[in-house]
């Protein structure tokens, strides 16, 4: 009798222990997306302005950074729709075509950022490890061709999102699926798994290999002949710039892309198994769903980190700002003081 009572209690406990709501996303996602929209729009607009109007000498890195900034900016303009949607507790008022476009631009930004960061990393790797060959391998024209190839790859690979994304009415609200409807989930799982391997795992492995070889090269002693201290300072600045770029790109992959893909893969896998073994993976589905929703703002945060790759690791921005300050200071001096300063110089 006691055994039957205990088993009944355990059954009731297992039935209700994993029932909890995800209402936290109606607060987390609007706040996080609002922060990304405000700061991301400001930083990317500044980077876009400087690259477009203030950069005098374009390099392959400038071409890649321009495309990366455009990619981030297009996504940032979709955030007000998502902010309104999640603040209104998953009630989508904009229609199914807009839902498809919003989801498409999210994944286009995600994998476009990954591929352009990989192109920047490969470009810097060739310049450091193969400096002689880089003179003929790296050019603005080739960077433009690579950028066109990246956009073609991203747009073609993410085109199925326009088919999978759709809306459905639940109760009084209209849901805009960030995956797809239940009837197409198995097909979407196969598609998403292939895209994750091709457009995240392989580029991530490429970046890690490049950076490992770059670090080994940067740790080698510097041999300078005929240049003395000036040559040493130039080599030191090059090393500093490369180290900054390594830190920023690795931080973007580790902080933004890796957690999102891990939690999303777990959530999709447990959701697939739920259809086969519902009671065994019930709690795992809920736990992975929460983790996935928590890491979604991290994936959007790459739009905040990417501009720092230009501001911190690039030299053109600092030269532009320094030139503007010097010009403003010179213009602010009286005419006699300006003349005296010019004579003194």
UniProtKB/TrEMBL annotation:
Q: Which GO terms describe its biological process?
A: adaptive immune response
Query: Main site of residence?
Result: membrane
Q: Where is the G-protein coupled receptors family 1 profile domain?
A: 43-310
Q: Where is the signal peptide?
A: none
User: What topology in the membrane does the UniProt record assign?
Assistant: Multi-pass membrane protein
What GO cellular component entries does it have? plasma membrane
Q: Where in the cell is it found?
A: Cell membrane
Transmembrane segments in this chain: where? Answer: 31-51, 63-87, 110-133, 145-164, 188-213, 243-262
Supply the InterPro entries for this chain. Answer: GPCR_Rhodpsn, GPCR_Rhodpsn_7TM
Quote one Gene Ontology molecular function term: A1 adenosine receptor binding
Q: What PROSITE patterns does the annotation carry? A: G_PROTEIN_RECEP_F1_1 (PS00237), G_PROTEIN_RECEP_F1_2 (PS50262)
Keyword list, A-Z: Adaptive immunity, Cell membrane, Disulfide bond, G-protein coupled receptor, Immunity, Membrane, Receptor, Transducer, Transmembrane, Transmembrane helix
Family per UniProt? Belongs to the G-protein coupled receptor 1 family.
> Which protein, by its recorded name, is this?
P2Y purinoceptor 2
Species of the source: Gadus morhua (Atlantic cod)
Print the organism lineage. Eukaryota, Metazoa, Chordata, Craniata, Vertebrata
């Amino acid at each position: 009798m006691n055994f039957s009572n205990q088993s009944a209690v355990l059954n009731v406990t297992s039935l209700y222990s994993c029932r909890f709501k995800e209402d936290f996303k109606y607060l987390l996602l609007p706040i996080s997306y609002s922060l990304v929209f405000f700061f991301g729009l400001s930083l990317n607009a500044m980077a876009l302005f400087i690259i477009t109007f203030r950069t005098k000498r374009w390099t392959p890195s400038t071409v890649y950074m321009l495309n990366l900034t455009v990619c981030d900016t297009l996504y940032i303009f979709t955030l007000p729709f998502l902010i309104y949607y999640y603040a209104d507790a998953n009630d989508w008022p904009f229609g199914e075509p807009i839902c498809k476009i919003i989801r498409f631009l999210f994944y286009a930004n995600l994998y476009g950022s990954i591929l352009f960061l990989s192109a920047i990393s490969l470009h810097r790797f060739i310049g450091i490890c193969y400096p002689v060959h880089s003179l003929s391998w790296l050019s603005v024209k080739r960077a433009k061709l690579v950028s066109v190839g990246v956009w073609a790859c991203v747009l073609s690979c993410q085109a199925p999102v326009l088919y999978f994304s759709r809306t459905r009415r639940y109760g009084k609200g209209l849901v805009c699926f960030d995956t797809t409807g239940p009837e197409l989930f198995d097909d979407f799982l196969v598609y998403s798994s292939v895209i994750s391997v091709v457009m995240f795992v392989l580029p991530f492995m490429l970046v890690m290999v490049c950076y490992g070889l770059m670090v080994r090269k940067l740790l080698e002693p510097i041999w300078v002949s005929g240049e003395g201290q000036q040559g040493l300072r130039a080599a030191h600045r090059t090393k500093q710039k490369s180290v900054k770029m390594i830190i920023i790109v690795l931080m973007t992959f580790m902080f933004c892309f890796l957690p999102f893909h891990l939690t999303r893969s777990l959530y999709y896998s447990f959701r697939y198994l739920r259809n086969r073994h519902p009671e065994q993976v019930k709690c795992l589905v809920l736990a992975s769903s929460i983790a996935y929703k928590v890491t979604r703002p991290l994936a959007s945060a790459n739009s905040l980190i990417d501009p720092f790759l230009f501001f911190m690791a690039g030299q053109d921005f600092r030269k532009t700002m320094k030139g503007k300050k010097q010009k403003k200071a010179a213009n602010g001096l009286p005419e006699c003081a300006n003349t005296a300063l010019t004579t003194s110089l």
